[in-house]
From TrEMBL:
Lipid metabolism is among the record's keywords: no
Protein name: CO dehydrogenase/acetyl-CoA synthase delta subunit TIM barrel domain-containing protein
Presence of keyword Electron transport: no
Domain CO dehydrogenase/acetyl-CoA synthase delta subunit TIM barrel: 1-191
GO biological process assignments: methanogenesis
Keywords: Methanogenesis
């Protein structure tokens, strides 16, 4: 059993003071619930600007203001590399490798020896192929993102995909037996959160 980890985001297009304020709130968050304190487990840093320098500055500001783990979020390998340079020694999770950038992101994961998310929205065959390719390349710390859809048929697909991945792992399919990530950010993007 692995406890669910909850990360809250900051975006690199926020001003510096807003980043620091949000990171402090994330770090200090505590909610008493059913006999225990719930805490946030880390900070996801989104490259909303798609600018390597701006992203690196945001990563630097976050890691200066918290000891929590971080996720570096971009599909642009140049942006991820800029963040990795700043976060050396922090073992950030890279988000994410997909069918378009898998080679470059895989090389970054190997070069910096960091965990990586493989992402194939609503495509379990593609997700399995990415995970298998990364494992064969020597990347062992892999997280799966099968896509998270907040409404309608997409919500049903999300639930079904998560069940299929879990069942495959339980049934011994080691090629897809990795932790699963859900991103509620899609609910915000759809305007329902």
């Amino acid at each position: 059993f692995n406890k669910t980890k909850m990360f809250f985001d900051v975006a690199d297009n926020m001003d510096e003071a807003a980043i620091v304020e949000r990171v402090k709130k994330i770090s200090d968050y505590k909610k008493f619930y059913v006999g225990r304190n719930l805490l946030l487990d880390g900070v996801a840093i989104r490259a909303a600007s798609n600018d390597p320098a701006k992203f690196a500055a945001a990563v630097k500001k976050v890691i200066e203001n918290t000891e929590l783990p971080v996720i570096l979020c971009s599909f642009n390998p140049a942006v991820l590399k800029a963040g990795l340079e700043v976060a050396k020694g922090k073992n950030p999770l890279l988000y994410a490798a997909n069918k378009d950038n898998w080679k470059e992101v895989g090389e970054l994961a190997l070069e910096y020896n960091v965990p990586v998310v493989v992402s194939a929205f609503n495509d379990l065959d593609g997700l399995k192929t990415l995970a298998k390719t990364f494992a064969e390349a020597g990347i062992k710390d892999i997280v799966l993102d099968p896509g998270t859809y907040p409404t309608g048929k997409g919500l049903k697909d999300t639930f079904t995909n998560f069940l299929k991945i879990r069942r495959a792992g339980i049934m011994g399919d080691t090629e897809i037996a990795y932790p699963i990530m859900a991103m509620p950010l899609t609910a915000w993007m759809a305007g329902i959160a």
